[in-house]
Amino acid sequence: MKDIMNAPFLVEMVRTITNMYTHGWDERNGGNISWMLDEAQAAEYLDVNAVIRDIPTGFEAPALDGKYFIVTGTGKYFKNVQYDPACNLGVIRITDEGKNAQLLWGFTDGGKFTSEFPAHMMSHAARLSVDPANRIVMHCHPANLLAMTYVHDLDSRAFTRTLWQMCTECVVVFPEGVNVLPWMLCGTNEIGQATAEQMKTARLVVWSQHGIYGAGKDLDETFGLIETAEKAAEIYMKIAHLPRVNTITDEQLHLMEGRFGIKAREGWLD
To answer: Domain holding 223: CATH number?
Structure first.
């Protein structure tokens, strides 16, 4: 059996987590990632029949039964993952229609998956229902997107249109837009359910005054989604107090649709 420390999924997970920390998106133990692995990926590096312990999930997700995930741990600091992946990360298999997780590797200090694991699983199930290629759910706290939720209308269409107008590539990167939730108590099934519902129509969901959830087929795509939205929010926060002399118009955004073969969310452009 191959050494899991050389597994591409572990190497890429550690690299991405470290990059998120250096971007300032994941202070202290803020943020979490879950990546759905193929069984064949896991089996190359793990004895999938050797269960270390069972961890109740606190929810039900029949659509994920039997699925494998590598996921960040609760209370773990992103800055420490690169130095001790086995303590800060875990590989689990979902069983009992989502009610239980079997730990196959990691969480060596006796820990468990992030407290927002139910929200992740609900979002995975929601995204898989509209995109079978989805594999990643990523949560973090980008400063400019957070700041924007204090000063901007939280209507999803209005919020998205502002982001699209800040940077030419935004409508290409997330043509379905960004969905925005009002402040809700984190770590609860209620916010998980609300996020999952919004994930059915967009890969980015902003938690007002808290952070953002992103989903995608791989870590690069998901990181890039958040990175692009955060750059647009940074531009907005730099100019929001100034008179807008120029902007990207809806007519120009329609031109982008034709040039790049994408379609902006129905009804969100005039």
So the answer is: 3.40.225.10
Domain interval for residue 145:
116-270
Q: Report helix, strand or coil for 14.
A: helix
Pick the catalytic residue from 116, 221, 230, 234.
116
Q: Which of 105, 125, 112, 140 is nearest to 36 (CA)?
A: 125
Q: How many separate domains does the chain show? A: 2
Distance CA 195, CA 204 (A): 10
d(CA 123, CA 180) in angstroms, rounded, equals: 15
The two beta strands, 68-72 and 32-37, are antiparallel
pTM for this predicted structure: 0.95
Please write the tens of the pLDDT for every residue from 59-102. 888 999 999 999 999 999 999 999 999 999 999 999 999 999 99
74 exposure class (CB count in 10 Å sphere: 0-12, 13-18, 19+): middle
End-to-end CA separation in angstroms for the chain = 57
What φ, ψ does residue 162 adopt, rounded to 5°?
Answer: -65, -45
Asked if 65 and 182 touch (Cβ cutoff 8 Å), the reply is no
Closest CA to 117 of 194, 38, 59, 172: 59
Task: Assess whether 246 and 163 both reside in one domain.
Answer: yes
Q: 164 and 264 share a domain?
A: yes
Does 98 lie in the same domain as 6? yes
266 carries an active-site annotation: no
